[in-house]
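Continuing from the previous page of notes. For each protein in this section, the sequence appears first, followed by its structure tokens. Read the first protein now.
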Amino acid sequence: MRTFSFEFFPPKDEIAAVDFGINIGKLLHLSPSFVTVTYGAGGSSRERTFALVEYLQNKVKINTVAHYTCVESSRLKIKEDLTILKNMGIKRLMLLRGDPHQGASRFHTPPNGFAHASELIDYTRSLYGDQFTIGGGAYPETHPEALSAEEDILNLKKKVDAGCDFLITQFFFDNSRYYGFVARAQEAGITCPIIPGILPISHYNQLERFVRISGAHIPDSFRQELETHKANPEKIAQIGRTFATAQCRDLLLSGAPGVHFYTLNKSRATVEIFESLMK
């Protein structure tokens, strides 16, 4: 069964919370298969993440996946945090290593903690068995710290072997990169669903920033169209929605197990794309 899911991050202040409430209402009206809630760098949004996860799971009654990372977390802290989530009724986790602190050149393993997501996944399985459904991250265009695409697939296989039930990819703009990645993963024996992550471009200044963050390839025709209309914000948003809709159609027609939308806590683009796909 195909899944359609949305990623949110906890609002940072009261004004952002009001805006978030308006947008999330429109998105949840679409009845997604599940939603995910991010976990800030170094656990910086821990309290807000946990509060939002509990609200969505228990008040809104939507299937909610809690992100959790090993950054700044010992085994004891991880056990305590996962127990809190379990007691909230959370049954689904996205277990990630997490990014190095801003300005750091590499990830620093916390004392009595973990250096890799595969270790976090294995530890969670050792504590809770099958009580959680566990998701992991995947990089169609190779994790930025991997020495090669081959090494990246080997590391991904470690996550799956440790107990990963599904994978969600980093966003990308060239579907051929996703198809090639899935083929390599399957050749390595990875059989769990690999859900493509889609990020609709809504502002021109997002382009270079997102490319820098993810290393994603931008097709020349898409880049040129955005460049041509960069002074027209409404046109840029329309181009981004049209491109993302075409991406999703192609992915679904080609057998992708679903689509995961990086919403940036906004609703317009995702709502329009989703409604177009349902026609």
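Done with the first. The second protein uses the same format. Note its length before scrolling.
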Amino acid sequence: MIAAYQYKLKPTKQQVIEIDRWLAMLCSQYNYLLADRFDWYERNRSPVNACPLVCHLPQLRDNPDYYSQKKTLPNLKKTHPWYAEIYSQVLQDVVKRVKVTFDRFLKGDSNGKRSGRPRFKQRNRYRTFLYPQVKSDCLSGKLINLPMLGLVKVILHRPIPDGFKIKTVSITKKADGYYALFTLEDATVPTIKPDFNPESITGIDVGLKEFLTTAQNEVVAIPRYYRKAQKRLSGIQKRVSRRKKGSNRRLKAIKSLGKQHKKVADKRKDFHYKTANTLLRKYDVIAHEDLNVKGLARTNKAKSIHDAGWSNFLSILANKAEKAGLLVIGVSAYNTSQNCSSCGVKVPKELSERWHTCACGCSLGRDHNAAINIKNRAEGHSVLKAKSLLCDSRIVLEARAVCS
């Protein structure tokens, strides 16, 4: 099992200067390598419908792939000696980031979905660098030993679980300081909960009136953290707009605005984690609608949808369930609010109608009805059947082992 733990760092003044220097140099190298990729892309492509029959063909360049760009790093340290102050693997990871970004633009991700044209990074937008490999004993007490940076103080607000090994460490600069994200791995952790019960299932319907409603009619109120902080945020935003561009007072106001936005994001994230933990303590299988949140956010409810953070919550719920050996299933969202959960007949209603009433006698809240429909669709899902078969086979193997 792979887990991620985030801790706040307390670097010295000299280490802060060094980290900022690294980020500035890595940003420049990222932009240079990305420009090299774009140069090859523009020189070598030729649309069929725009290419004349007689034309001059320039000498084609070799594709600057991951390995060819990686070979340029030793020469970079000779022509620009200050890059030798950066740890070699951190510098190599920049090449990998460019590769992943450009491949998603040309080929798409694992699902074949292509991203937009990569953009060059501004200095203040390049905030993270990665140590792909670290020693197993790099963390000693409240200090972490980072190559070429030295010992950095860490606030260990929770201990690393026994048996987990630190695989990678990424350093991130945020509005309120520097953070280290540890990627942990333990291959001995089981992927299925020992007492997994496929009958312990519920469906959840997320919304803007209530954050979610379960099939058992349990309601979680929506906190609206951004709406509550909007007045203060607008005041700080006015302060930023009145400052002269490039001045120290403007930078100070921007930093204050960033801290306030981070407070809102941290509150929302904490709420998402607590809600996910509450659901996973009660149920072994949780079903939800497979929503196109990006498409919904283009409507006039965009601000409220972003404030609720549905995508982040569903991602957190899936990750927590995987670590706990439980199951989260996404089902089709088609007509979950319109169909009757008792007889299945479609009962058309406007979005403003918050109560579902059917001729069969079913009368309940609109969100409660949708949550029951979501649960019913998940009960026959192939993923749930496969998980149940794995659980049954594991129990049989354990019983045979005990008998023998």
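What the second structure shows: The mean pLDDT is 88. The longest strand covers residues 165-174. We return to this in next week's lecture.
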